[in-house]
Amino acid sequence: MGKLRPREAERLAPGPTGRPCPLQNLLLLWTLLNSGLGGNAQGPGEWTPWGSWSRCSSSCGRGLSVRSRRCIRFPQEELCWGDTHEYRLCQLPDCPPGAVPFRDLQCALYNSHPVLGTQKTYQWVPFYGAPNQCDLNCLAEGHDFYHSFGRVLDGTPCSPGTQGLCVAGRCLNAGCDGLLGSDAREDQCGHCGGANDSCLFVQRVFRDAGAFAGYWNVTLIPEGARHIRAAHRSRNHLALMGVDGYYVLNGNWVVSPPGTYEAAGTHVVYTRAATGPEETLRATGPTSQDLLLQVLLQEPNPGIEFEFWLPRERYGPFQAQAQALGWSLRQPQPREVDLQPPEPPPAPTVIPSRTLIPTPVFRARVLGRLRQAQETRYEVRVQLIYKNRSPLQALEYVWAPSRCPCPPLALHREYLLAAQRLISPDGTQDRLLLPHAGYARPWSPAEDSRTRLVARHCPL
Fold first, then answer.
1. Predicted TM-score of the model (pTM)
2. What SS3 state is found at 46?
3. H-state helical runs in 74-194
4. In angstroms, rounded to a whole number, what is the distance separating the alpha carbons of residues 266 and 4?
5. Residue 374: CB partners within 8 Å, gap ≥ 6?
6. How far is 343 from 377, CA to CA, in rounded Å?
7. What angle do CA 66, 132, 153 make, to 5 degrees?
8. What is the per-residue pLDDT for 200?
9. Which residues, given as ranges, of the chain have pLDDT below 50?
10. How many helices (H) and strands (E) does the chain have?
11. Smallest Cα–Cα separation from 138: which of 170, 116, 162, 163?
C-alpha cells in the first residue's frame, strides 16, 4: 500500500455520518500510517506474547521445555528480530537404575526394520564416534558400520557425561538463566548476568615468618565467600579449620592426601604438586559458615597468597571481626608439629631448661582425647579465663603425663582447669600441663564462685 496524500485521505475516509472527516483527523491517520502501520514501514514486525512452557521432554533426569511466539507484520515489513522458539532446561529426579537412555530408545525404534535399501534387519545401539553428535547415529550390533537416521529428538543429551542437550540438530548448553543456547553467566558474586558490582574482591599475601614450627593463623574466610583460592610454594602445609574447631584437612600434625573435601557447604579442592613444593586450596563457594585458614610451618614462610569474593554487606562485619581478633590472626596456635615419625616424648617433669609461666586458670570444654606414648593429650575449647598472664587461644591442647589418664576428664564435659605452662628456651615447645597436683574440677556454679573469689585475692 502506498502513502496516502491528505486529499486522497479526505476522499477515502468518510466520517460516521458519511461526511468526510475533519482535516486534523485525516492528518493524524496519515501520520500513523507513515509511522509504522503503512506498507512502506521499514522496521520489523511485532511479536505476540510468549506462549506457555510445554511439559518436560523427559520423565526423569534432564530434559527441556519449549515455548513459542508468532511474528505479526505487514507484507512489506521486515521479519521480527529474535527466535520463534525458546528452550528451557528442566531437571527432574534422577532416572531409576536400569532405565534405558533416551538415545538408546530412539535407536531401538529401528530394530527389526529393513534399512539401507535391503530387506536385512539389524539391532541398533547408539554410536558416539560420528561427527555430528546430534544426529541419531546408530551402530549395527555385531557389525562394523553405523547408520544415521537423521536428527535425534529435541532434549536428547549430546553425549554421555556432558551437560549439553540437542535442539534442532545443535548441541546447546544452558546459561545460568536456564535457557538453552543462552550466554548468560554468573558473575563472581553469584548473580546471573551480573557485573561483579554486588561483591568485593579480597586479595592479600600472608608474610609472617613465624617464630617456631607449628600452626599459624593466616586469615578468616567469612561466611558467604566465593571463588576462594590459597597457594604457596614451600614445604609448609595449608590447613583448614571449621567453626566447630575441627580440622577439614592437614590438622593434628597429619598431612591429608590431595583430593576434594566438603566444608562449610562447599567443596574444597586440595592439590599438592608431586614434583615440587606448590600447594593450593580452591573452593567455588559460597561458604555457609566461617572457615579459618592456617599454615603448618616447617620452614620460614615465603608468603601465602589468598583471595576470595565477598558480598558487600558482609565485608564490613568481616573487617570488624579481623580488627577484633587483632594480633590473634597472626599469633601462633599452641600446636606442636613433627612430620617425621614421632618419638616417645620424655615426661614433662624431667624436661630441663624450660621456662615456667605462671599458672593460667580457665574454664574449658573437653572436645577430644588422645593417648600417645606416656602422655594423654586433651583438646579443649576455652570458655572463660579467670587468671592468665600469657595468651590462651580458643582451642588449646592440655597434656597429662601418664596414660591412666590422670586426671580423668570426660568428653564433652566442662571443667575448671589450673594448668602449668612450660615453654622451651628456643620456643619450639609450648605446653599446658596437668600434673597430678594440677587442678581439674567439674564446672559448677559453686566452683565458679570459689574460683572467681580466689582469682581476685591470689596473685598469678
1. 0.53
2. strand
3. 102-108
4. 68
5. 344, 345, 347, 401, 402, 403
6. 15
7. 30
8. 92
9. 1-21, 23-41, 326-357, 437, 459-460
10. 5, 27
11. 116
